[in-house]
Amino acid sequence: MDQPIGLYLHIPFCERKCTYCDFNSYSGLNDLIPTYTAALVREVELWGSSGQYTVKTVFFGGGTPSELPLQQLEAILAAVSASFTLLPGAEISLEANPGTVDRGYLEGLLRLGVNRLSLGVQSFDDAELAALTRIHSADEARRAYEDARSAGFRRINLDLIYGLAHQGIERWVANIEEALRLAPEHLSLYALSVEPGTVLFKQVRSGRAPGPDADLQAEMYEYTVSAMDAAGFHRYEVSNWARQDEECRHNLVYWHNEPYLGVGCGAHSYFQGRRFNVVNPPRQYVAAMRDAHPGDPWAMPQLENIGFIDESTRLAETLMLGLRLDEGVRLDALERDFPEVMPHYAETFKRFEGLGLLQRQGHVLKLSQRGVLLSNEVFEEILVPNR
After folding, report:
1. CB burial class (10 A; 0-12, 13-18, 19+) of residue 32?
2. Under a CB-based contact definition with an 8 Å cutoff, are residues 269 and 306 in contact?
3. Once rounded to an integer, what is the mean pLDDT over residues 137-147?
């Protein structure tokens, strides 16, 4: 039997495209929702017809998945259930934005089988939300959380961003305190980054907006580590904290470098030893799915950049992803699975241990606390060892 996979479903629609966002998302295309849903259902069905696959996690990401009416989500989940074998107790997550959900909608999600909700709060400060061009207010974020609890959700994540322009440490402290008062099971806390192609990138490059202060972001992160630990949250990944046994199981599929299948425009996959992606433009995706027919799945017209992953690349990715986790990577397991490639990393590991960025505990290799702050330097070197 094949290893169970994670299934990612991309929903590209947004009411407004945020200035910092580099995801494959679009505003002004909601008229495409019915035909896009039909295309997504078609892609799910075609993958299901190409083999018998077992799914252990399902994740609706975007974009804003909560832009979809319940009827459309029901059709997608029905196709997933008919096309794949869902493991009992499979985690089914959906990203939602405050301002796009109410209690009735959230109750409907639960009835459809969604059992984990991720709310894109980003900030509990109205001025910061305006600077981020979010569509909701702080009060709407609080209301969305309370509605989710009242509807019956028992697993909720909140996303927050730190290191914004003009956001001092005291405002970030207030955001963390507000989030902890709500008592979610999971928190994803990300440093603002300026990504090429975004409105924010153009603003920073032209001098119309300041870029993030790396030193201040590091101070905010160190405060966050301390505050979350005191509140009983476990940092299991560089930017993710959870209460006991409340880690996002779908994201752990990625960080453990396990197979996952992404469907929908712009979705990426690591499946059957290949990495590939779906075309980005939603209308192109819809047109491609109209031309798709059962048969060789690798000939489906929506797929591009299909390539096998060699052992050297697979090890580099396994190291880079695994070191993001607090559990680190097991060197004995990697030496067993990659006997030809692992020796190439001996000097790299030794050097970063000497710099205090990596630490070895028996057979486990982990980022040190300082290494977490400088993790990009470690990962860049791991991707090209001994260059």
Report:
1. middle
2. no
3. 97
For residues 175 and 232, the answer to whether their CB atoms sit within 8 Å is no
Q: What are phi and psi of 250, to 5 degrees?
A: -65, -45
pLDDT for the residue numbered 385: 54
Which token pair is 123?
Answer: 């900030």
Q: How many CA atoms lie within 13 A of 340 on its CB side?
A: 5
Residue bearing tokens 């940092």: 235
User: What is residue 382's predicted lDDT score, i.e. its pLDDT?
Assistant: 87
pTM: 0.95
Q: Is the Cβ–Cβ distance between 277 and 269 less than 8 Å?
A: yes
**Token pair of 305, please?**
């950049």
Given a contact cutoff of 8 angstroms between Cβ atoms, the answer to whether 58 and 47 are in contact is no
Q: Are 57 and 250 in contact (CB under 8 A)?
A: yes
Using alpha carbons, select from 122, 367, 327 the residue that is nearest to residue 234: 327
Q: Could you report the per-residue pLDDT of 340-377, keeping only the tens digit for each?
A: 999 999 999 999 999 999 999 999 999 999 999 999 99
**Neighbour-count burial for 171-197, b at 16+ CB within 10 Å, e otherwise:** bbeebbebbbebebbbbbbebbebeee
pLDDT at position 1 over 80: no
Q: Under 8 Å CB-to-CB from 333, ≥6 apart: which residues?
A: 363
Q: In what order do the strands lie in the sheet with 186-191?
A: 234-237, 240-242, 186-191, 156-162, 116-122, 85-96, 54-62, 5-11, 260-263, 268-271, 274-278, 303-308
Residues 366 and 249: their CA atoms lie apart, in Å, by 20
Provide the b/e sequence for 296-313 (b: ≥16 CB within 10 Å).
ebeebebbeeeeeeeeee
- Concatenated DSSP letters of 116-156: EEEEEEE-S-HHHHHHTT-SS-HHHHHHHHHHHHHHT---E
Query: What is the SS3 string spanning 21-72?
Result: CCCCCEECCHHHHHHHHHHHHHHHHHHHHCCCCEEEEEEEEECCHHHCCHHH
